[in-house]
Specification:
The structure is a single chain. The longest helix is centred in the C-terminal third of the chain and has 22 residues. The termini are close together. The model has no long low-confidence stretch (mean pLDDT about 95). About 40% of the residues are buried. The protein is about 45% helix and about 15% strand. It is globular and about 40 Å long. The protein is α/β, with parallel strands linked by helices. It is built from 6 helices and 4 strands; from the N terminus they run E-H-E-H-H-E-H-E-H-H.
């Protein structure tokens, strides 16, 4: 069983989109969650994240979750949206180092390992973030099966 945890800042934009994209693949034996390093529990996904997911025929009922040791321990693979998210996790939870990567690092991308934060941006900014996340997820599907 693969348990994938996507992590961003507030768990309302990037990590919920990543969670929704991977869940929409309906991969057998793969569970997916998301959390935020500075998230307030219970917030909905941002309106533009919802719009972009709907445009791509992906439904996702989301409530934000604060990253906890329990979430990290649950995961067999932790994928962060930025190098700073990864660094923050590893500084507080060094035991998670062998299973924590940026999404783009795990997708074996060589440059710009951060997914830009669309928070506060317009729908087009969210579309660009969605595309960036989706392309990376496509590259990791075989690795996580």
């Amino acid at each position: 069983m693969a348990r994938i945890l996507f992590v961003c800042t507030g768990n309302t934009c990037r990590s919920p989109m990543a969670e929704a994209i991977l869940k929409s693949k309906q991969l057998p034996g793969v569970e997916v969650k998301s959390a935020g390093v500075y998230a307030a529990n219970g917030a909905e996904a941002s309106i533009n994240a919802k719009i972009v997911l709907e445009e791509n025929d992906i439904s996702h009922d989301h409530r934000s979750t604060t990253l906890t040791k329990g979430e990290l321990d649950w995961a067999t693979l932790i994928l962060t949206m930025t190098q700073s998210h990864k660094g923050l996790i590893l500084s507080h939870y060094p035991h998670a180092s062998e299973k924590t990567f940026t999404l783009k690092e795990f997708a074996e991308e060589k440059h710009n390992l951060d997914v830009a934060d669309p928070f506060g941006g317009n729908e087009q900014i969210y579309r660009e973030a969605f595309k960036e996340i989706q392309e990376s997820i496509e590259r990791i599907i075989d690795k996580i099966r």
